[in-house]
Specification:
The protein is built from five helices and eight strands, in the order ββααααβαβββββ. It is of the alpha/beta class and 160 residues long.
């Protein structure tokens, strides 16, 4: 599996999770809809990569349950003890989680900043993100023969 760390930032904060490289195109296609928040991006990406939104939502529910009331010992322990490619879905809540959200997995790390309308490829050895692209739809089990295309609006920046 070509794992990448994806971090999504919106006006309310950020989340970070691991995805297969094929999901990055779906998230980029979701950005082409100019989503205003994390859930809007995940909803927009769902038709291209089925199951991603539910997986992230379930991971965040577990995070919220284990890290309630500003006590983040559980996520700190998880991030310190497990290999980067096994890290759970988490919210960026402090310096330790912010640092972890920027650490590449096997194939890299990408930040989708919805507030600044910027996609930052911190490291990406899987496939370069471009302003226009095409990819195959993932149906929740496998990639299908159906192909989708996207074009990022002009106001979106790609770094580098």
């Amino acid at each position: 599996m070509n794992l990448l760390r994806c971090t999504i930032v919106d006006p309310n904060g950020g989340i970070s999770f691991l995805v297969d490289g094929e999901a990055v195109s779906a998230l980029t296609a979701g950005c082409a809809t100019n989503p205003c928040d994390i859930d809007s991006l995940l909803r927009a990406s769902e038709s291209f990569y089925k199951g991603l939104r539910d997986r992230v939502a379930n991971g965040l529910a577990i995070f919220d349950e284990r890290n309630a009331s500003g006590r983040y010992e559980a996520i700190h322990r998880a991030l310190e003890s497990c290999p980067a490619e096994e890290a759970p879905v988490f919210r960026v809540v402090d310096e330790l989680t912010r640092e972890a959200s920027l650490q590449p997995a096997r194939a890299g790390a990408i930040v989708f900043n919805l507030t600044a309308k910027r996609i930052v490829q911190l490291m990406n050895s899987y496939r370069e993100i471009k302003r226009t692209g095409r990819a195959r739809v993932f149906n929740g089990s496998e990639l299908t023969r159906t192909v989708y295309t996207y074009r990022l609006p002009r106001e979106w920046a790609l770094v580098p």
